[in-house]
């Protein structure tokens, strides 16, 4: 019991520190709101930190209700994916600017890019549209899956800890992972197609940081 209390206190302190840092950054962004085209997306990304830390701490505090906190957190994760793509597009001046600046360029076949089985992908309006669709399908699907999880849980048909094929958990996770993989791959393709334009903004570091937070929260 004491170990559990200490772990909750420690987790609460970590969540408090994370929230303090995040809210400080949010405050200074709002105080110096001089580039709204960029900062509105950055604020949404930074807000992920307090939302994730608080929901994770509440999940530890009220384990029987953790599925509801996780649902809110996961829905915001989908929103983060969309806003990260929107931020990258804002950095480069919008889809039209990408098409103009990268005219004649293409994403070549590569094992690194996962395009070894594709023909060269020209960077044009269709390429950008497919990248956006790949990311947006997760934004749309995730809230649907979240609502389905809550319904299955209320009907005692979710079975998160059972591993039964007669429960919904396995199928929800399979669809979620497939959709999430497509969304991340779409973001990576967009980066590979526009990395020359994105280079001054170091999007890889931002992307890895966002995914690091999500990854650690998932395994928590």
Description:
The protein has 220 residues and is mostly helical. It is 75% helix and 2% strand. It has 8 helices and 2 strands, in the order H-H-H-H-H-E-E-H-H-H. The chain has helices at residues 2-31, 36-46, 48-61, 66-91, 95-101, 125-154, 169-198, 203-219; strands spanning 106-107, 121-122. It has a two-stranded antiparallel ribbon. Helix 3 runs antiparallel to helix 4 (66-91) and helix 4 packs parallel to helix 7 (169-198). The chain is globular and about 60 Å long. 20% of the residues are buried.
Kindly summarize this structure in a few lines:
This protein is mainly alpha-helical and 220 residues long. The chain has helices at residues 2-31, 36-46, 48-61, 66-91, 95-101, 125-154, 169-198, 203-219; strands at 106-107, 121-122.
Structural class: mainly alpha
Euclidean distance between termini CA atoms = 20 Å
Strand coverage percent: under 5%
- The average pLDDT is 83
Biggest sheet, spatial arrangement of strands:
1-2
N-to-C SSE series?
HHHHHEEHHH
**Tell me about the biggest sheet?**
2 strands, antiparallel
Principal-axes shape call: globular
User: Stretches where pLDDT falls below 50 for ≥5 residues?
Assistant: none
Total helix count? 8
Fraction of residues in H or I helices: over 70%
* Strand segment count: 2
- The radius of gyration computed from the alpha-carbon positions, rounded to a whole number of angstroms, is 20 Å
């Amino acid at each position: 019991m004491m170990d559990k209390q200490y772990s909750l206190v420690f987790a609460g302190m970590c969540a408090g520190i994370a929230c303090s840092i995040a809210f400080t950054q949010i405050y200074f962004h709002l105080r110096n709101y001089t580039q709204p085209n960029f900062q509105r997306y950055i604020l949404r990304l930074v807000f992920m930190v307090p939302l994730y830390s608080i929901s994770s701490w509440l999940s530890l505090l009220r384990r029987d209700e953790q599925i509801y906190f996780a649902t809110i957190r996961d829905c915001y994760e989908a929103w983060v994916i969309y806003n990260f793509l929107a931020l990258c597009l804002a950095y480069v001046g919008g889809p039209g600017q990408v098409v103009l600046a990268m005219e004649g360029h293409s994403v070549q076949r590569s094992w690194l890019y996962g395009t070894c089985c594709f023909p060269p992908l020209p960077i044009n309006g269709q390429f950008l549209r497919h990248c956006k669709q790949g990311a947006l399908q997760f934004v749309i699907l995730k809230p649907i899956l979240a609502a389905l999880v809550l319904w299955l849980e209320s009907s005692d048909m979710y079975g998160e800890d059972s591993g039964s094929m007669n429960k919904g958990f396995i199928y929800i996770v399979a669809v979620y992972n497939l959709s999430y993989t497509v969304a991340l791959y779409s973001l990576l393709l967009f980066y590979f197609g526009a990395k020359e334009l994105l280079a001054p903004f170091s999007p890889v570091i931002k992307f890895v940081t966002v995914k690091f937070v999500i990854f650690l929260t998932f395994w928590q």
